[in-house]
Each structure stands twice: as structure tokens, then as C-alpha cells.
Write a structure and sequence with these properties.
Number of helices: 15
Number of domains: 2
Pfam family, one: Phosphodiest
Distance between the termini: 9 Å
Largest sheet: 8 strands, mixed
Strand order of the largest sheet: 7-6-8-1-9-18-2-19
InterPro entries: Alkaline_phosphatase_core_sf, Phosphodiest/P_Trfase
Protein name: Ectonucleotide pyrophosphatase/phosphodiesterase family member 5
Bound molecules: 2-acetamido-2-deoxy-beta-D-glucopyranose
Strand content: 15-25%
Organism: Adineta ricciae
Number of strands: 20
CATH class of the largest domain: Alpha Beta
CATH superfamily of the largest domain: Alkaline Phosphatase, subunit A
Keywords: Membrane, Signal, Transmembrane, Transmembrane helix
CATH topology of the largest domain: Alkaline Phosphatase, subunit A
């Protein structure tokens, strides 16, 4: 009798313990959300959110160059662009003889095991994740994929549909990490400029959608969810377009490949023509031209010789763009980004709230390469040893102090533990198929493509473990009474 009781207690405790120690995290990236939009507009939900949780008064510093694809990979890997190798939105890889962009299928570019997005770190440590529209999430990393991912980059899906999916995953599956990317307010910022009414309206819509998210988290997840809302870079007015770069300053036949989008112009000259190209680039007004090895160290933008060209021209003036356009009207963007990652206009947003975070904590700023470590801390993951660009050194105050967090957890442990157990035990029936993500309610293009065998069996093992615990508990209880 004593033995059985002890067994029941042990099992119940371990079940409760497992549930109570199962922190969950939603990361939302809102593309091109310039940091000071938050000060310029009285966005009620977002401003209340950051005042209640972690508020970064000067925003979050992107990595250089301040573009979307590279910064999402820096956020996900905790690495500088020169180390993870995604050096622009689109670039040519000389080793693979392939142009790589946000929609590229994996064809060898993710085979270096030391480059590991956080969802891969999590998957390898048996923490389940869903990654929606985050750049590169549709790729296999060294043979590993998250439990759920969208199969192609798209800007056709409304923010609320992505929110609906995230909530559903947390409710129905034993998922601990959801990462969700949305393409606004970047799109409006490019088309109409950062100060435009179009951007303002988009920000208020995003704010309202965030309210919808928080209401659902409160009602359906008992508010037991950590949420980070961040962005990849800022946005500024395009004030001067220098064009056309080619006919006017450079002979195309001297160039093997270029990267020209956003503020940076990176050039791979053909053999033997580097000095000549350097001289010509230097004739462009208001730019500084660097050889790859002479790029300022703080940019961390010189290592990948197979992807970066030998020369980089950077505008000296924020807002200046170099363009291939040959007519005045053929550079349509009113807003852009890509300039120096220390400029105030290029700073991104960061705010966080939830049971693992402190309340009403203000910090000055953080680096986006720190996010990887914040996620590891919350989900109790061992970080990839190559993720050395960021750290938690200046961020210890953003987490809930240990004493407080254990008491919070134990006080709320009974409710979430039962709900976690029941939701996870109902999961296998729906998730044993290859499409746990798609449900009748969403016509969205989110497709959960087939999982690898290891992942599927990993997910099932997790659920089986929980069911096994429950069954043992009931059997033990039965014999006890
Ligand atoms: C690179 O790929 C193209 C086709 O995509 C091919 O024509 C060319 O020969 C390849 N170059 C090298 C060096 O392999
Ligand atoms: C916010 O969204 C709700 C629906 O969730 C809608 O009814 C309301 O009109 C929206 N408010 C604004 C200001 O757009
Ligand atoms: C950007 O351009 C708009 C419209 O031309 C102007 O009103 C605004 O002041 C500019 N913003 C900055 C930061 O220069
Ligand atoms: C450099 O500029 C000169 C003068 O415009 C031009 O003749 C020459 O072809 C250019 N060379 C390269 C490599 O672009
Ligand atoms: C831009 O270049 C022009 C011509 O070289 C020069 O007169 C001007 O001072 C430069 N502006 C800045 C802000 O450097
Ligand atoms: C193009 O713009 C420049 C100055 O920005 C102006 O001098 C020139 O006349 C314009 N050309 C046309 C065809 O509009
Ligand atoms: C990862 O770290 C190892 C050991 O320091 C190093 O040899 C390797 O180049 C690193 N990989 C990357 C992509 O930085
Ligand atoms: C921490 O903050 C101090 C003071 O703001 C700064 O000098 C230091 O570089 C920061 N360290 C890291 C690792 O970010």
C-alpha cells in the first residue's frame, strides 16, 4: 500500500513537474517595424505590452547589413552575417554556383552543422516547434526540420490567420516554441515611406491584431505563454537615388556579380580588374568603398569569400541609394533600409511579456544576436557552441527571478498540468497524420509538409510518454483504493 501511494505521488509529482516546467514561447517578427514608431504613435496594445513586460527604450540593434533575410537568420542562429553566411536578401554562392534568396530550396547551403537556427536546436533537444513564414524555415538543416513549418515564403497570408494557427498549435499539440513572421509594416514602409499615413494605418491594424492575440492567449491559454514581439530592422526615407550605377560609373563587363538592393553595393570584379573597379566606385558621390578584408570590424561582414564580392560601396549619407535604374521613375521605393546598423532609424523593436519575464523592466537596448540565448534560457536548451555573437551578459534583469518564478509556477501548476496532459493525450489522434497544422478553419497556404521519420517518432514518443504516465497513475490509483 505504501509503495503504491508513493508511486502515485511520485508519478503525479513528476507529471505536474513536467507540465509546470514546460515553458512556452511565441516569437513574432514584424518586418521593418522601426523602433521609434512606438514613440511616434500611441499604439495602445503594443505600448501597454512593453510597459507591462520588457521594454527596450532604444530598441534592438540589427546585424549589418540591415536587411530582412540576414537579420532573421541572425535572430534565429545568434550569429553575425559573416558567420551564418546569409549576407543579403539575394546573393550568389560561387561554391554552389547558385543564387540564394529567401525562397530558395535547400540545395547544400544549410549543410554546415555549426549553423543552427533555434528551432533546430530545440528539435534536436526534443522540444517541439512550429515555424511560420520565418525566412529559411522550409529548409532542412543538416537533416533536421521542426515539427511544423510553412513550405514557402509568402506575403499573402493575413496576420490574424497566423495568430490563429499559433494559438491552435499551443492548444492542440505539445509545442513549446512558435515563431511567426509577418511582412508588415515593411511593405507599406517601402512603398510610401516611414512617415506615411499608410504606415500609420498599418501600425494601428497590427496593434489591433495584437490585442486579438493577447485576448485569445488570456482566454484559451490561461495567459500562460511567453511572447516576444520583435522586428528585423528599421526604415528611413529614400532621399537621393544615384543612378544608373552601371552605364554611368561602371563597365558591366568588368563585373562578375553584384549585390545591389537596399543601401549596400557589393561587387565581385572579374579577375585582375579589382583596382580599376575600386577607382570607378570611388567616383560615385557620397560613398565609401571598402575592400572585403578592410570592412570595419564592427560590421562583421568580411568572412564568406564564396559569397561576398571583393568590394563594398556604402553610402555616407543615410537615405542615399545606388540604383541600376536608368529612368527617374524606375526607382519606386520611398522608404528603404540596409544602412549602418547603429543608425537610430535602423533600430528594430523588442518587447517581451509572460511568466518567464520580469514585470515592467526597462533596458536600454540589446543585440538581435542575443535573442537566440534568451530562447535557450526560457526553453532550457543547451545553446549551439558556435552561437557566440550574442549573450545574456547584459540581460539577466529581464528574466523572472528564480524564487518568484517557482512560486508562480507552483501556484498555477494544477490547471496547466491537467490541460497540458489532456491536450497532449488528444494530440496523437490528430497529429499522427502528416498534417497536424492544417485544419478546416484555415484556408491559408500553411502546409505542414511531411515530417522526417525521426521527428515523427520523436513527437509520438513525447505523447506516448505522457499517456503512459497517465495510465500508470490511474492504474496505481485504482489499486490504492
Ligand atoms: C553554373 O550553373 C550554370 C547553370 O545554372 C551553368 O551554365 C554553368 O556552367 C555553371 N558554372 C560552373 C562554373 O559550374
Ligand atoms: C479591431 O478588431 C476588432 C475585431 O477583432 C474589430 O471589431 C475592430 O473594429 C477593430 N478596431 C479597429 C480600431 O480597427
Ligand atoms: C520623410 O519624408 C516625409 C515626406 O516627404 C517627411 O514628411 C518626413 O519628415 C521625412 N522624415 C524624415 C525622418 O526625414
Ligand atoms: C571606369 O570608368 C571609365 C570612365 O568612365 C570607363 O572608361 C571604364 O570602362 C570604367 N572601368 C570599369 C572597370 O568600370
Ligand atoms: C556629397 O558629395 C558631394 C560631391 O562630392 C559633396 O559636395 C557633398 O559635400 C557630399 N555630401 C556629404 C553629406 O558628404
Ligand atoms: C531626372 O532627375 C534629375 C534630378 O533628380 C533631373 O535633373 C532630370 O531632369 C530628371 N530627368 C527626367 C527625364 O525627368
Ligand atoms: C564553429 O566553431 C568551430 C570551432 O571553433 C569553428 O571551427 C567553425 O568554423 C565554426 N563555424 C562557423 C560557421 O563559424
Ligand atoms: C553591456 O553593457 C555595457 C554598458 O552599456 C556595454 O559597455 C557592454 O558592451 C555590454 N555588453 C554586452 C555583452 O553587450
Amino acid at each position: 500500500m505504501y509503495y503504491q501511494l508513493a508511486l502515485v505521488q511520485l508519478l503525479l509529482l513528476s507529471a505536474i513537474d513536467a507540465a509546470a516546467n514546460t515553458p512556452r514561447l511565441l516569437i513574432i517578427s514584424l518586418d521593418g517595424f522601426r523602433h521609434d514608431y512606438l514613440n511616434k504613435y500611441e499604439l495602445p496594445t503594443l505600448n501597454q505590452f512593453r510597459n507591462q513586460g520588457i521594454r527596450a527604450n532604444n530598441g534592438m540593434r540589427p546585424t549589418f547589413t540591415t536587411m530582412t533575410f540576414p537579420n532573421h537568420i541572425s535572430i534565429a542562429t545568434g550569429m553575425y552575417q559573416e558567420d551564418h553566411g546569409v549576407i543579403h536578401n539575394t546573393f550568389y554562392d560561387r561554391r554552389l554556383n547558385k543564387t540564394i534568396g529567401m525562397s530558395s530550396r535547400d540545395e547544400g547551403q544549410w549543410s554546415d552543422p555549426s549553423i543552427e537556427p533555434i528551432w533546430i536546436t530545440a528539435t534536436k533537444q526534443n522540444v517541439k516547434s512550429a515555424v511560420l513564414f520565418w525566412p529559411a524555415c522550409h529548409n532542412e538543416f543538416n537533416g533536421v526540420r521542426p515539427l511544423i513549418y510553412t513550405s514557402i515564403y509568402s506575403d499573402a497570408v493575413p496576420y490574424r490567420e497566423k495568430i490563429d494557427s499559433a494559438i491552435r498549435y499551443f492548444r492542440e499539440l505539445p509545442i513549446q516554441l512558435v515563431m511567426l513572421y509577418h511582412f508588415e509594416p515593411d511593405k507599406q514602409g517601402h512603398a510610401y515611406g516611414p512617415d506615411s499615413p499608410e504606415v500609420r494605418d498599418t501600425l494601428f491594424r497590427l496593434d489591433n491584431d495584437t490585442k486579438y492575440l493577447l485576448d485569445r492567449v488570456k482566454e484559451e491559454l490561461n495567459d500562460d505563454l511567453n511572447i516576444i514581439i520583435l522586428s528585423d530592422h528599421g526604415m528611413t526615407n529614400v532621399t537621393k537615388v544615384v543612378r544608373p550605377i552601371f552605364e554611368k560609373y561602371l563597365d558591366r563587363s568588368a563585373i562578375e556579380s553584384t549585390i545591389l538592393s537596399g543601401a549596400l553595393f557589393n561587387v565581385m570584379p572579374r579577375n585582375g580588374r579589382t583596382e580599376e573597379v575600386l577607382r570607378n566606385l570611388s567616383n560615385i558621390p557620397n560613398v565609401t568603398v571598402y575592400k572585403r578584408d578592410e570592412m570595419p570590424e564592427r560590421f562583421h561582414y568580411s568572412k564568406p569569400k564564396h559569397r561576398l564580392g571583393e568590394l563594398t560601396a556604402l553610402p555616407d549619407i543615410e537615405g542615399q541609394i545606388l540604383s541600376e535604374a536608368t529612368t527617374n521613375s524606375s526607382y519606386p521605393n520611398k522608404g528603404n533600409h540596409g544602412w549602418d546598423n547603429t543608425l537610430p532609424s535602423m533600430q528594430a523593436i523588442f518587447m517581451a511579456r509572460g511568466p518567464s519575464f520580469g514585470k515592467s523592466v526597462q533596458i536600454s537596448s540589446l543585440n538581435n544576436v542575443d535573442i537566440y540565448h534568451i530562447v535557450c534560457q526560457i526553453l532550457k536548451l543547451n545553446p549551439n557552441p558556435n552561437a557566440t555573437a550574442g549573450s545574456l551578459r547584459n540581460l539577466t534583469q529581464i528574466f523572472m527571478p528564480i524564487e518568484t518564478s517557482t512560486s508562480t509556477l507552483s501556484s498555477s501548476s494544477s490547471a496547466p498540468s491537467t490541460s497540458t496532459l489532456s491536450s497532449s493525450s488528444s494530440a496523437p489522434s490528430t497529429s499522427s497524420t502528416t498534417t497536424p497544422a492544417t485544419s478546416r478553419s484555415t484556408p491559408m497556404t500553411v502546409r505542414t509538409t511531411t515530417r522526417t521519420t525521426t521527428l515523427a517518432s520523436g513527437a509520438d514518443r513525447f505523447v506516448f510518454h505522457r499517456i503512459f504516465l497517465c495510465v500508470i497513475c490511474f492504474v496505481a490509483l485504482f489499486f490504492t483504493f
